[in-house]
Amino acid sequence: MRVVAAMSGGVDSAVAASRMVEAGHEVVGVHLALSQSAATLRESARGCCTIEDAGDARRVADRLGIPFYVWDMAERFREDVVEDFVAEYEAGRTPNPCLRCNERIKFAALLDKALALGFDAVATGHYAQIVDGAQGRELHRAVDPAKDQSYVLGVLTADQLARSFFPLGDTTKPQIREEAAARGFAVAKKPDSHDICFIADGDTKGWLTRRLGEQPGPIVDTDGDVVGQHDGAFAYTVGQRRGLGLKVPREDHAKRYVVDVQPRTNTVVVGTEELLGVDVVVGDHARWCGPPPTGEASYGAQLRAHGEEVPCRASSDGETVTVRLERRVRGVAPGQSVVLYDGTRVVGSATISRAERRAQQS
């Protein structure tokens, strides 16, 4: 098969590309230029798409003896990921940009361009597994639970999975580094990138404030009494405790958390910990990794990229998903994603539109 290997300049994508070559595929390495003003050097483990990263990817491709190209997708990334991220926070939601990048860039823009150029598939360094099942290719968790990335791939459709390879899913990260060293890759000891790639210093609040400007407003308790001030409701998320700077403590001195963000009135609402627990999650923008479920069935629900899987009952009308969790979960915010699992198999995902608590536990 003719395969585009997405090469970020890190150790994972380097080994993924080498495994595709070793498997006998005709491989072309592609580095995605996603920044409109790429830095020359990586400043920390955060960030990506520096000129240094492109150089690291090119050196791996040269060592493998495969063609290498840089595809400029900075404008598409800005529109579909960065601007979406800003708009979601401005609307009082908490997005996951990695899911949007996988959905709209790596497995839409990249795959679509690869297919248009006559390639058969795309390979990436994600930690997940594709298994041939009775109804087609299935997406499964990686064998290394510490590195499993199936959650951020839960936006992929069956058609996209049919043209995707994840060569690292059966291997642990230490083994990947050992393999990279054995192959002579200089990136074998390169630190992993993490957090939000386009916010290199990790200061999401500061980054959003620079984009949206300060928008002072009240922080209120659940009775509506003002207990503090903020510089922009967009910078707060449900479940947040640190950085609130509350001026009026509770009489019982109980810790308070963000329990609601109200963008229309630019208000942040705080309350006690027990108000954070929810056991019903409703999501829209459903994406199915195979045939959509029919009726209500038992699944596992994961609500964060590295969160615990929670048993649940879930149903869908095709576009909207309702998930009833077996126990309450804290800090679930609109804009996050819920990914459903059947064992290790990823069933699909939805973007959370609201979270509620039943009056009584079943």
From TrEMBL:
Residues at which ATP binds: 6-13, 32, 125
One annotated Gene Ontology cellular component of this protein: cytoplasm
Pfam short name (any one): tRNA_Me_trans
EC number: 2.8.1.13
Record has Disulfide bond as a keyword: yes
Catalytic activity: S-sulfanyl-L-cysteinyl-[protein] + uridine(34) in tRNA + AH2 + ATP = 2-thiouridine(34) in tRNA + L-cysteinyl-[protein] + A + AMP + diphosphate + H(+)
Origin: domain of life: Bacteria
Annotated ranges, domain tRNA-specific 2-thiouridylase MnmA-like C-terminal: 284-352
Name the UniProt record assigns to this protein: tRNA-specific 2-thiouridylase MnmA
